[in-house]
Amino acid sequence: MLRAAAKTVFAAADLPYRTRPGPRILIYHQVGSNLGRQMEVTAPAFEFQLQWLTENGSIVSLDEALARVGEPDADRLFVLTFDDGYRDVYDIAFPMLAAMSVPFVVYVTTEPVDSGRAMTPGGQAEPLTWDQIFEMADAGATIGSHTHTHPDLRETTADVVESELAESDRLIEKRLGIEPEHFCYPYGYWSSTAEPLIRDRYRTATLGGGPPVLPDTDRHRLHRVPIQLNDGKFFFIRKMRSGMVLEEKLRKRLAGYPGTPE
Prior knowledge:
Helix 2 (about 45-55) runs parallel beside helix 4 and helix 2 runs parallel beside helix 9 (about 230-240). This protein has helices at about 1-15, 45-55, 60-65, 85-100, 110-115, 130-140, 160-175, 195-200, 230-240, 245-255; strands at about 25-30, 30, 40, 60, 75-85, 105-110, 140-145, 180-185, 205-210, 220-225. It is built from ten helices and ten strands. By secondary structure, it is α/β, with parallel strands linked by helices. Strands 1, 4, 5, 6, 7, 8, 9 and 10 form an eight-stranded parallel sheet that branches. Strands 2-3 form a two-stranded parallel sheet.
């Protein structure tokens, strides 16, 4: 109840903001897992969101969105990204995406996928398998790196970052025959230590919520729009239009995360 009330206040505060410019890169984690976490969405909600996105614009690949970022209607371009590599992305989201023939990105944390170890919270969430990832890639999904063990890169040394990236890339190339060109920071948190190493390996890097994607936006500091369990139809649409700027600023402050340098 309190969370819903807060979102209503944030949505009202967003009204003075004009339509968010540039493509919207959406963050998803789990779909229909029924674990009750804010980082998931229900299957019916995801179905509604796909329908709304296609009726109000185009779902495109990350590369296409960046190539068209300067177009007048770039705010009607939507990119779907899925972080970590949860099994329900294949079981529930992928059939809907395949039926609509729309592209999407999966940022894979390779250790759980390679070991089969259940993922957080508390080992309740099963990871994707390499065969499932290969099938999605074969259907047109972009497979990106999300490190090997998902550490907070703000708290790791350069040697550890390099090891995480190298092992992630090695496994993706070995298991899928794909050299990953896109990266996603774990937890969406930017790291000054990691950034030079990430720039050397990948063409793009994505973060959590933040400023819109514009023609002059650094391709290694692409911010996205988090989609959450309690968004519902109204707040999802508000996010697609204005970005729910105030909500995102408060989330960063509560997390003690200053974001990227200006």
